[in-house]
Amino acid sequence: MVIAALADQVVRGVEGVTDTLTAPFSDRVIRLGVTGLSRAGKTVFITSLVANLMDRGRMQGLAAAGAIRTAYLQPQPDDTIPRFRYEDHLARLTAPDPSWPQGTRQISELRLSLRVQPRGLLSGFSGPRTVHIDIVDYPGEWLLDLALLDKTYADWSRGALARAKGRPGGDDYLALLDTIDPNALLDEPQAQKLSQSYSAYLEASRAAGFSDCTPGRFLLPGDLAGSPVLTFAPLPGDRFARGSLGRECERRFDSYKRHVVRPFFRDHFARIDRQIVLVDVLGAIHAGPAALDDLRSAMAQILGAFRPGRNAFLTRIFQGRRVEKILFAATKADHLHHSQHPQLTAITTALLREARDRADFAGAQTAAMSIAALRTTVEETVTHRDGPLDVVRGRLLTSGKQAAFYPGKLPDDPAHLLAPARDGAEKWLNADYSVMSFAPSPLTLRPGDGPPHIRLDKAAQFLIGDKL
Ligand SMILES: Nc1nc2c(ncn2[C@@H]2O[C@H](COP(=O)(O)OP(=O)(O)O)[C@@H](O)[C@H]2O)c(=O)[nH]1
Ligand SMILES: [Mg+2]
User: Fold this and answer.
1) Where are the alpha helices (DSSP H) in 376-455?
2) Whose CB has fewer CB within 10 Å in the chain, the N or C terminal residue?
């Protein structure tokens, strides 16, 4: 423990030195973390944000937009993190027949540098200065793993097995467990079979809209796929015989915490200045009350990572630093007519409420908003038998045909959704919610305009506006 603590501090110290070396005194560096559960919209968000910071015609909501002289990509400061494939993603979104970017399953980084003309009193006396924005894209699932650090293998197993009951794929895993004795001698193929079955369950639950699918690397293994550190699964019991399957799973669980979870928090998470957490609230509402409640509890766990005071390990790696601002953004708001955006924001705020109330976020400033990083629809009002209806129109992902779409009426009072979700309702009583998948529309952009969006400029203003 003590040695781990020392090592963490030494690494942080050395990083501090290189940070100052690579960033000349006059340049500002903002490390912007972009996270959210898989499919929340991180890749689309970063691509559109960068494109819109390069061509700022649609960024009126960013106060300093007019003061930015140029924006350009530069080599990122961290040589060992994969580069965010901005050019590929943008090419897909802006192709004559546009498509969504391919899913990414690991951390990546991009440095966008802005030349900004200082405003205010001194503006006449000084030339433009440079602000580097280091955007770090990482899976929200990895933040869920923080909760594992405080748990023993037996604690974790108990919770994991309780969650698996009744969820898609969960019963298959539990049935497999029935055929296995955790105290039998370790048999590697059996351990592999267990962890594959457990991963398949997590995958199926995730596809059905559940959020709490830890350990995070089981879904997003990256280059750890197939390694022993991911070859374990929850087992019933508190103590396991020497050399048994249970004992080995316990050891690998500890190894996962030490070699996977801690390094991520120490090397990446602890260096973030500003954070956006993307949340697919509409998707969860569509998936039903159980998925919405699971999203609520997953978000509460994720937000736990932004309260360093609560956790001795985090306190140590942060060393008094903190995330200064956190934005919670409900994504894909282009599925809704703007008349329903306030309701979506209210639901998002309420969803995070409990976690936000408990958290002091160590003084970080927080906000919630509804955004669409890439707007795929136009608004329309159609006449329906009960009167006018505010809909959106877009190109369907499945057929490529244009369709008008009404996703259902979100309640003005978020409790109308969150209360039944918490009480374990099986389906929504008074309403039906649907989500349609729209394809990105072919774009004809005027020179100087980035891709169309909803409130991306406001999000940028909150996250980095004060530093420009
Ligand atoms: N309509 C709409 N769909 C979006 C938007 N952002 C993301 N999506 C959808 O969500 C999917 C996942 O987005 P992606 O950025 O790859 O999510 P990630 O896994 O968090 O990186 C995309 O393929 C789109 O179908 C948006 O602004 N509008
Ligand atoms: Mg992605």
Assistant:
1) 415-422
2) N
